[in-house]
DNA sequence: TGGGGTTAT
DNA sequence: ATAACCC
């Protein structure tokens, strides 16, 4: 049965994009309900990274400086959101909840998920046809207010997709207390673009006849997910400024400027075509922790910062249960003109005798790790010369499951479930 | 402009 | 190891 679905052309997929409303602010309002009806911002360093809708009504925007935000809105309440632990935990609860409906769930950041509901839709459409039930209703908005033709099986399937999206949002609200938007369409690109069309706590389905309207509604090329800052700059030098320009641009010239792979991909995106699959995210590929600051200019300070980053990280890795085999140190050096883009990193394998210690408490793994990280630091920075760092980040990656013999006798008998990831507990 | 993440080269 | 992308 699953073969019949995957063998069918990609045009028949039904994809749901779920996008939580101002996620960090919602989590903070759940942690402290008194903040519910007040304008609330979440602060990291001197930036308001997100805010609730009360604050938005009063003119606060995402990524506004604290100074500007307070000027706009003196009553604004700010909570510090530099520790992502509460958001990360809630984020994985959402992904796990969606995973109860369907195995194909892909995370995008902490507050978005793609779900390929093609199979669920298939089952429901079959049931509907057998029971001869024709009372099928769309849930939420239809993009462009386009008329639905339920005799068109593509329409029918997307309408059923909208009902499933509604069930997702209801479950997320009932069980986790979170609101969000959803978009339903035939691929990831379109589902993501359409999910934002009605904004807080609403959902929208895109029917194929309105695809070009959705695409052409994008005023800037960078609004296409997958076309970022760099590609936009290069397209601008070619005179490509909007979707129509990109659609019409000669493929051969595009391929010469951007390379065949990127050119083909983004030109397809410009038509609303995206055959990339929903790839289940599973547990995280890496764990990192970083801190930014005005200035760090001595080895002693660097060591102190690293020692501050490690305990939290080690705790997360311990709870995850897997062992990292690679460690990386990333720095950002101060440079007045540059676009804050100048990060460099060094990584190395973790010595096997240290890997063993990740499972256990009480053994001191911190000191040897700090030593390794300081060696990596010296590979980047000549400590005899002056330096000025503005960020330090430690990342553990190349995560591997414990050898099964180490998992304790009971581990041998436990059913190997796909880990719903290293979130909770 | 934070504090995270991913994949491709 | 970096560079691009995403939030």
UniProtKB/TrEMBL annotation:
GO BP annotations, alphabetical order: DNA repair; DNA replication; translesion synthesis
Domain UmuC: 15-228
InterPro entries associated with the record: DNA/RNA_pol_sf, DNA_pol_Y-fam_lit_finger_sf, DNA_pol_Y-fam_little_finger, IMS_HHH_1, Rev_trsase/Diguanyl_cyclase, UmuC
Subcellular localization(s) per the UniProt record: Nucleus
Keyword Nucleotidyltransferase: yes
Gene3D superfamilies hit by this protein: 3.30.70.270, 3.40.1170.60, 5' to 3' exonuclease, C-terminal subdomain, DNA polymerase, Y-family, little finger domain
Gene name in the database record: Poli
Name recorded for this polypeptide: DNA polymerase iota
Catalytic reaction equation(s): DNA(n) + a 2'-deoxyribonucleoside 5'-triphosphate = DNA(n+1) + diphosphate
Assembly notes: Interacts with POLH. Interacts with REV1. Interacts with ubiquitin.
Cellular-component GO terms for this entry: nucleus
UniProt cofactor(s): Mn(2+); Mg(2+)
Main location: nucleus
Top-level taxon in the UniProt lineage: Eukaryota
PROSITE patterns: UMUC
Region (Disordered): 272-291
Family named by the database record: Belongs to the DNA polymerase type-Y family.
